[in-house]
Amino acid sequence: MSDAFQPASIGADGTRRAAMPVPRLDPESALLFVINATAGALDVDAKRAVIESTLAARGRRGELLVCAPDELAHVAAEAAASALARGTAVVAVGGDGSLGTVAQAAHAAGCPVGVIPYGTFNYFARTHGIPTEPAAAVRHVLDAHPQPVQVGGINDRVFLVNASLGVYPELLQDREAYKARFGRSRWVAFVAGCATLLRAQRRLRLHIETGATVRDVQTLTLFVGNNRLQLQQLGAEPEDTVVGTPGDGSLAALMLRPIGTLSMLGLMLRGAMGRLGEAAGVECFEFTHMVVKPRLARGRKEIVVAFDGEVARMRAPIDLRVLDQPLYLLQAPGAAGAPAAGA
Q: In angstroms, how far is the first alpha carbon of the chain from the final one?
């Protein structure tokens, strides 16, 4: 068990935040694996077999909690509360969307969280040095210790990779429809994204407040990134204007101004080449706290948003920030973002 404390640090609002205890982790207590039965290419029996055989080889115990997507939030919340009480961790088995739901519960409870990635992109796992091969990921969890990592907040939700308004939530909905028809692959996701962008017409009118800066903009989408790997692959890292980097001290915002079809084709080509930030009509900037007030039709109070692959409606205004409380991620010594052994 560990009762060590993290040093006090500066929060997103510039004030000093109190030191926080690292959650205790009892190696004798069973890990709680929350398994999204529909995430990834392998069926649930294959996922169970990988986890159970790896646990058995190490002489460790685990409880496997299999659930349908509509049960995931409830099962994750119960598992996180149980993990905190028993001095163990909850482990998300699925893609970035499943991980986001489990992380929401773990962050609220204050318990550690591990990751067994089964998604299409697995940006969060790859960023933090977690293997994408399932058996290796289980071994990684068994060797790991809780380490604080940054999470973003969008109203009352946390996000690990990204959050967005506008055309990007539509892209996610189209991507799921394409996957259901053509299967799960990065190529299918890319084609779905192209189809969405080519018919993108709806403009968002946003009043944006970032610190002392206030402005009104029109955009097809507002995309907020908490994952440097994803931003690097898009070629959309902003200039370094805030202490830290996206995912480690700041968040990155990307806005796409309304453009014509021909320009959109050029934009998609730049995105595929990892040069999105060079395109005309794309603006990138860093921030730690931003309030977004969309201009909505009369009588409407909510707007569609996306976070870590999930789509939902949220009441305006939309508050986006680096959260002061970190997520305690199980990371093995020597993994990306983890301290070396003995540090």
A: 17
**How many CB atoms within 10 Å of residue 123?**
26
The yes/no answer on whether domain 158-322 falls in CATH 2.60.200.40 is yes
Taking the C-alpha atoms of residue 256 and residue 204, their distance in angstroms, rounded to an integer, is 10
Distance CA 322, CA 111 (A): 19
338: left (phi over 0), alpha (psi -120 to 50) or beta: beta
Higher pLDDT, 236 or 324: 324
Helix axes 186-198, 261-272, angle to 10 degrees: 160
Residue 15, CA distances (Å) to 5, 318, 321, 322, 323 in order: 19, 22, 14, 13, 12
DSSP-based three-state secondary structure for 243: coil
- Residue range(s) of every CATH 3.40.50.10330 domain in the chain: 9-151+325-331
Q: Which of 325, 342, 343, 333 is nearest to 145 (CA)?
A: 333
CATH architecture for residues 9-151+325-331: 3-Layer(aba) Sandwich (3.40)
**CB burial readout 177-192, b (16+ within 10 A) else e:** ebeeeeebeeebbeeb
Give the pLDDT confidence of 144-183 residue by residue, as tens digits. Answer: 999 999 999 999 999 999 999 987 656 655 555 545 555 5
Hey, how many other C-beta atoms are within 10 angstroms of the C-beta on 24?
Answer: 17
The segment(s) of the chain belonging to CATH 2.60.200.40 are 158-322
Distance of CA 256 to the CA centre of its chain: 21
Query: Is this structure's pTM higher than 0.90?
Result: no
